[in-house]
Write a structure and sequence with these properties.
It contains 15 helices and 11 strands. With 377 residues, it is an alpha/beta fold. The strands form 2 sheets. Strands 6-5-4-3-2-1-8-9-10 form a 9-stranded mixed beta sheet, with helices on both faces. A two-stranded antiparallel sheet has the order 7-11. 42% of the residues are buried. Bound molecules: iron/sulfur cluster (2 copies).
């Protein structure tokens, strides 16, 4: 039976084991092996949002990978924990249903999340009704963006009438989620300088009136959400116009989001810890962990087949050079070089903060288990 010792004593008792495999308090970079993937399937979009980081591509859409090329990627990648399908607006791709099935079937992806602006209801419903998630016993989530109440949302999105359309579509998606148990819908609200006073009103609409799960993120951009990226690999991804709420408001915004979260029955979870770390960064603090996921367990593929460690750094390779074998590309020399180049930067990009936090907590738990084993013995 394990003896409960004060925390500092536990550390000393486990020291001999830790000496043979030293643990960096900010986490050990994991061996390269993809667990999660962000896949842009198109640059085309039916909106022109002020806060879009990818507006240059949206204004000038490039080529798109074919189904065969995507099939090869699915085959050559280790089974993914999460595939985030994004763009552009993914539902503008007529073959999106097949892309989803390819990853469930050939890659055995556990969870596919489609990020959408939520207006193309027929396409969204058609994919849910294919029931691929049920067929392969996996999970399908739609993450729909709603950035404030009617005026704020429609203005930010440059799409008059889109708020009402999305609200109606969400009602239908909630019904679908009851009929299709492996399907879930969540809403993401990007908090920015124009909508931060609407945090509670958005919650009231989505949760109290419509029972839609929802979460918040802070708007981001290269010039205000990143630090120390080597200049020659910086990707110029800044929103056209939108910016963060005033920095001195961020702590109270965080508290308000926590309150909403608590009230809706989701206590201080990982997303809240991630937001706390992001706000800390904007106030001048570094994260307690390295960026452990970018280029290692998490990667990004753009719709033309170029590959990058994260969206704030430039692509380092193209899949056509590797016959669309993503595993081979991920283990290549250019990938190794890029992993070295990004060891010194940090940023507040949610996907990378959340996955690095997850990796760091897993390492800490493994370390704690090892300590307990030594004490047990
Ligand atoms: S943020 Fe999304 S919906 Fe808006 S323009 Fe960019 S890709 Fe389209
Ligand atoms: S995601 Fe990681 S590698 Fe990319 S800019 Fe942020 S800290 Fe650097």
């Amino acid at each position: 039976m394990a003896i409960q010792l004060p925390r500092f004593l536990q550390w000393f008792r486990s020291a001999p084991v830790l000496q043979s495999a030293p643990i960096d308090p900010k986490g050990v970079y994991p061996d390269p092996g993809l667990k999660d993937l962000i896949l842009f399937v198109t640059d085309r979009c039916n909106m022109r949002c002020d806060h879009c980081m990818f507006w240059r591509r949206v204004d000038n859409p490039g080529e798109e990978m074919t189904l065969q090329q995507l099939e090869r990627i699915a085959h050559t990648t280790p089974a993914l924990r999460t595939l985030a399908i994004t763009g552009g607006e993914p539902f503008l791709r007529k073959d999106l249903n097949q892309i989803v099935e390819i990853f469930f079937r050939d890659n055995q992806t556990n969870h596919i999340q489609v990020n959408s602006n939520g207006v193309l209801m027929d396409r969204m419903e058609e994919l849910v009704c294919q029931d691929y998630a049920l067929k392969y016993k996996r999970h399908l989530t739609y993450q729909i963006s709603l950035d404030g109440l009617e005026d704020a949302h429609d203005q930010l999105r440059g799409a008059p009438g889109s708020f009402q359309k999305i609200v109606n579509n969400l009602k239908r998606l909630v019904e679908l989620s009851k009929e299709h148990p492996y399907f879930r819908v969540v809403v993401l609200t990007n908090v920015n300088k124009n909508n931060y006073h609407q945090i509670e009103s958005v919650a009231e609409l989505l949760w109290d009136q419509m029972s839609v799960e929802h979460t918040y993120d802070l708007v981001r951009g290269l010039s205000f959400s990143t630090w120390n990226i080597p200049q020659d690999i910086q990707q110029p991804e800044d929103p056209r116009e939108c910016s963060l709420p005033p920095i001195d408001q961020l702590p109270s915004i965080l508290e308000r989001i926590k309150e909403v979260n608590q009230r809706e029955g989701r206590p201080f979870d990982q997303v809240m810890r991630q937001l706390e770390i992001q706000v800390g960064m904007y106030l001048g603090k570094k994260a307690p962990f390295h960026c452990l996921s970018a280029g290692r367990t998490l990667g990004v593929i753009y719709s033309d087949g170029s590959v990058t460690a994260c969206e704030f750094t430039t692509p380092f390779a193209k899949l056509d050079q590797y016959d669309y074998d993503l595993d081979q590309l991920w283990k290549s020399e250019s990938a190794d070089q890029r992993r070295e180049q990004i060891k010194g930067c940090h940023c507040a990009h949610t996907c990378f903060v959340l996955t690095s936090l997850h990796e760091w907590e897993e390492q800490q738990a493994a370390c704690a288990n090892r300590s307990t084993t030594v004490i047990d013995s």
